Amino acid sequence: MAEHHEESLMEKISEKIHGHGSSSSSDSDNEKEKEREKEKEREREKEKEKEKEKEKSSESPSSLKSKGSESPSSLKSKFNRLFGREKPVHKVLGGGKPADIFLWRNKKISAGTLGGATAAWVLFELLEYHLLTLVCHSLILALAVLFLWSNASTFIHKIPPHIPEIHIPEDPVLQFASALRNELNRGFAVLREIASGRDLKKFLSIIAGLWVLSIVGNWCNFLTLFYIAFVLLHTVPVFYEKYEDQVDSFAEKALHEIKKQYAVFDAKVLSKIPRGPLKDKKKD
Fold it and tell me: Is the pLDDT of residue 264 over 50?
């Protein structure tokens, strides 16, 4: 019996030892499986990163081509505008309501302004109606109507006309006079600089402009010239804003040709003409 009891104890001890060993082996197997899964996830992440890099490398040439194709146009739009313009046409014209009228932002106001100018030109130029006569006749008609209406309102039992008091404010008049004075002083300074003989290019450009104006003055009077300028202000900016790229490319070619011809003329003629005295040197 004692031997049988000892054998049973030994079997129990061996079973516990084997059970503990099997549990430890299962734990180690579980840890290995977890490590394998982590390695697989890492490999998958690496594969995804490689695929993303391949996609980027395949897309980069097209993006570079698009950037290369866009950059020259943007540079042209910035630097090759007419007369070196960098601002939009609306801001070049001063902005605000005058620019809106010239660019036909409000078609009713622009059409009314141009129609009124056309009516005035037809009245004074074609019908040969004088300005002083028109002003006097308009005042006679307005005063007669208001006078009769004011006196007849007591007999007709109606409210007499309300004639507002008109006062010219001082600030706008002073601002206009100051702006006009500054522009006149600037013009006199330019004329003085040209007359001093220091800038031959500017002198020739002014002479050519005055000569063209004298020819135009022989064709038409001041009123017609003013009307032509008014019509051009209402048509040329709109046309330029609509066909800006085409006009700029044509103007660039024309200016390049003009500069080329001017360089030849300068080398053959202008460089041989004696210049005026240079600017006075500063005294020591």
Answer: yes
